[in-house]
């Protein structure tokens, strides 16, 4: 599985570009403070609608949460091979309102609400389908034991578990 979720601040204003094939994309970096000292600067790239939205509504210094996958690549420059690592962004979240960003970047709060609303309605429909299964195969003899912080069968015998798992 190749999935990454990161939250940080944009190091510059994202600028929308076009590939040689005409597809919209945006490259941007996010700065992420490490626990303790130091900061990591992560290269990100987004395509099409995601790229357009990020370039339209985010500014340098604003916090952003991105979800995507890590992509590696390489290219030649002056006879040397340069290796790259980027996060291919497929989803993002607005983390703060425009008044809370480091540079007071502005984006439309109404757009944010409608964007989240559309996404959450689709997501809810999918989740609803997943969780509306028939419960007839659920074992009702299983309960959560608050004292041991485990799930167990009502007729569970702790001695049997000790014999099977000696650790």
TrEMBL record:
Q: Note the CDD domains from the entry.
A: SSB_OBF
Name the residue ranges with Acidic residues bias: 131-142, 152-167
GO terms under cellular component? nucleoid
One Gene Ontology molecular-function label: single-stranded DNA binding
**Ranges annotated as biased composition (Basic residues):** 116-125
Q: Which UniProt keywords apply?
A: DNA-binding
Which Pfam families does this one have? Answer: SSB
Q: Which GO terms describe its biological process?
A: DNA replication
| InterPro entries noted in UniProt | NA-bd_OB-fold, Primosome_PriB/ssb, ssDNA-bd
Q: Which domain of life is it from?
A: Bacteria
Q: Where is this region: Disordered?
A: 97-167
Query: Polar residues: which segments have biased composition?
Result: 97-106
PROSITE patterns for the chain: SSB
State how it assembles: Homotetramer.
Name the record gives this protein: Single-stranded DNA-binding protein
| Source organism (scientific name) | Leptotrichia rugosa
Q: What is the lineage of its organism?
A: Bacteria, Fusobacteriati, Fusobacteriota, Fusobacteriia, Fusobacteriales
């Amino acid at each position: 599985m190749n999935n990454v979720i990161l939250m940080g601040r944009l190091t510059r204003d994202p600028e929308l570009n076009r590939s040689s094939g005409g597809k919209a994309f945006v490259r941007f970096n996010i700065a992420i403070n490490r626990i303790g000292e130091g900061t990591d600067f992560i290269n990100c790239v987004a395509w099409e609608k995601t790229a357009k939205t990020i370039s339209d509504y985010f500014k340098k210094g604003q916090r952003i949460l991105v979800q995507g996958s890590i992509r590696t690549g390489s290219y030649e420059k002056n006879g040397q091979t340069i290796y790259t690592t980027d996060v291919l962004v497929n989803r993002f979240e607005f983390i703060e309102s425009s008044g809370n960003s480091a540079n007071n970047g502005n984006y439309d709060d109404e757009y944010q609400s409608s964007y989240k609303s559309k996404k959450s309605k689709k997501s809810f429909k999918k989740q609803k389908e997943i969780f509306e299964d028939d419960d007839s195969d659920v074992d009702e003899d299983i309960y959560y034991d608050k004292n041991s912080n485990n799930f167990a069968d009502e007729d569970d015998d702790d001695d049997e578990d000790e014999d099977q798992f000696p650790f």
